[in-house]
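Narrative progress, year one. The postdoctoral researcher (J.K.) led the effort to move from monomer predictions toward full complexes, under supervision of the PI. The following entry was the first complex the group processed end to end, covering 591 residues in total.
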Amino acid sequence: MELEEIAKNIRKKIFLMSYRAGSGHIAPSFSCVEILVALYFKILNIDKNNLNDENRDRFILSKGHASSALYSILAKKDIIEEKLLDTFCQKDGILGAHPEAHSIPGIEVSTGSLGHGLSFGSGIALAGKIDNKNYKVFVLLSDGECQEGSVWEAAAFASHHKLDNLVAVVDYNMLQSLGKTNEILSLEPFNDRWKAFGWGVKEVDGHNISKIIENLASLPYTNNKPSVLIAHTVKGKGISFMENVPLWHYRIPNNREEIEIALKELGLDRKEFEEALK
Amino acid sequence: MRNAYISALYDIAKRNKQVMSLNADIGAIVFDKFKSDFPDRFVNVGVAEQNMIGIAAGLASCGKIPFTYTITPFITARTYEQIRVDVCLQNSNVKIVGVGAGLVYSTLGPTHHAIEDIAIMKTLPNMKIVSPADPIESKMATYAIAEIKGPVYFRIGTAGEPKIYDENYEFTFGKGVELKHGDDVTLIATGSIVYDTLMAAKELELKGISTRVINIHTIKPLDKDIILKAARETGAIITIEEHNLEGGVGSSIASVILEESESQIKFKRIGLNDIFCSYYGTHQELKTHSGIAKEDIIREVINLIKLKDKQVK
């Protein structure tokens, strides 16, 4: 299957599981679908039959609220059972709106509180250096998350310790829960901030899978430096009325008109939708 | 206690290559030997405590055994959410070592006092808490907590605490220690104030009050047996700690007694009464100012014994 086709299917899954649960973050998940597809299908060295391999690459979803995107990817990769997706946020299920490491195969770190992933990832990267391992550590951050001071503590640490096995990808959709990042607490000049912290920096269209792959294929960007890929994305990408509208950060479509539009734009037919909700 | 901890940690690190020391720019000179002999395993993360805890959790996920170290409020309160999510929620094998228990940094003021650390650490699931009373116990406890898989908060003093134990002391995690037998009243204390408690007990003996003293070095999990036995046998318990009363070890002990003791007992907690200590001087002077000195213990015992006698009559 083409990667674009996979991305399309992942969006369908995210929509269905969130709609069924009446919970979850659809728009922030849609924002990073292509990033996750690129990572899990072309970049990460993870063997589903040996998830604890000490040489595996690590992926940390620091923006834990995009869990529905990650669960859908893990199902697509056969790391978790696809039918588990039906239990998202429901009684007796293990898939919450934020991922938990101890109960879900393929989840390295429990996240949900922002600003934790880059420190955790720096620790794994440091262990890799001490033990002469070749693995890489990928951390997906949201842009709003980069307002947390702890992110910058980790950024300074990683460059000081030359953790060139650490890669941050920022889902830079320029929107946070209540509005535009530029209006709430600007992160600009974002590229320069990372550079000033001693990171190698690249920028990419975060919905162009082949470009993302191209930008993650050769690492680090600069010798002896951690790398950050700033992925320019659209929050809510895939459902027009959600795109770039802050209100949809944590909201599930609930009227007929919204659902009709969503189904049409995601390429879900009504029958498929009703079938999935059973 | 600090040096005893560091030399034990050095010894453990010598035998176990997974053991690391992470410091947030605290520990001048005292860590030099560790640093020069295990350069890869000593990381001064800088003045960035939250990051230190996250890094430690990441290291632990790769099999490392990180001992994180700095002054108590900075490693418990500043980092609380990192400890909660990265360490406790994920049951990470990270040791949180807070130096400067209670009021020992007496001249540095309330920013450096540790008076609510027990309360905030004990409320975290998966967390265990060890609070040694003297340098020997600090050393022995360091060996013990290195063997525990999972989060431990280790609350230590600094330097110059009087000795309570000799070199033959055997530390058992989770088991309180009866340091002195007695029948009229039991004093249960934790940390270096165990020494003041012992001194108070000796004076009380001279006044004819038979005083039992228990060192509760493991605050979580609590040794319920030794507490309930003391409640049964002495009928009066006083807890002593260098910590705020709210949420301290005394409140844990009170819960055990209220829920599980069948004996009718008299009970009193000694600790800081919901205050910051904005007072300067020696450690001893701060304890006196805060109402937790030896004399305060003696006074409270006498008061409690009177109540107990009234009850009997």
